[in-house]
Write a structure and sequence with these properties.
2 domains; Arc Repressor Mutant, subunit A; alpha+beta; Alpha-Beta Plaits; about 150 residues
Length: about 150
């Protein structure tokens, strides 16, 4: 595993803000030579600390879209119930995030769909038919003032 010293922390911070930054510019920002910077980034990638790079899509530019946060309680507390539910959510393209949480429910989902009709279809025909699901509570996102996912 790569050692996380102050320089590696600076590298990670810069890459979180701009994953497309050139190695030369990254090296300049963190005070390393380009070759030393590249070695550190490669080690962070090799060790799994940097899992990958991706584009952040401005969904509003693609057309109408809705984000719904969905709280799901399971009917059973067995590991097999949780695994079956997680597998179903992994296969559902509408589900962008699936988090196992503490509290009154077992899961919190972030679902993205084109419109309310598409969400109704997901709710009724994908989520609502799972035998592991005891209850579903949906929260329609009206707006996002901060989102640091990258």
């Amino acid at each position: 595993m790569a050692r996380i010293d102050a320089t590696n922390e600076r590298i990670l911070s810069v890459l979180e803000q701009d994953g497309k930054i050139s190695n030369v510019d990254l090296a300049d920002q963190v005070g390393l030579s380009p070759s030393a910077c590249l070695r550190r980034v490669q080690e962070l990638e090799r060790s799994g600390i940097i899992k990958g790079y991706r584009a952040i899509i401005n969904k509003a530019e693609l057309g109408p879209a809705m984000t719904i946060f969905v709280m799901v309680a399971l009917s059973g507390q067995l590991r097999k119930d949780a695994l079956a539910f997680e597998q179903a959510m992994a296969a559902a393209s509408e589900v962008k995030e699936c988090h196992n949480v503490t509290g009154d429910v077992e899961y919190m989902l972030r679902v993205e769909v084109s419109d309310l009709s598409a969400y109704k279809d997901f709710h009724s025909n994908r989520l609502g038919i799972l035998p592991q699901v005891a209850s579903i509570t949906s929260y329609i996102c009206l707006g996002t003032s901060k989102d640091e996912r990258g």
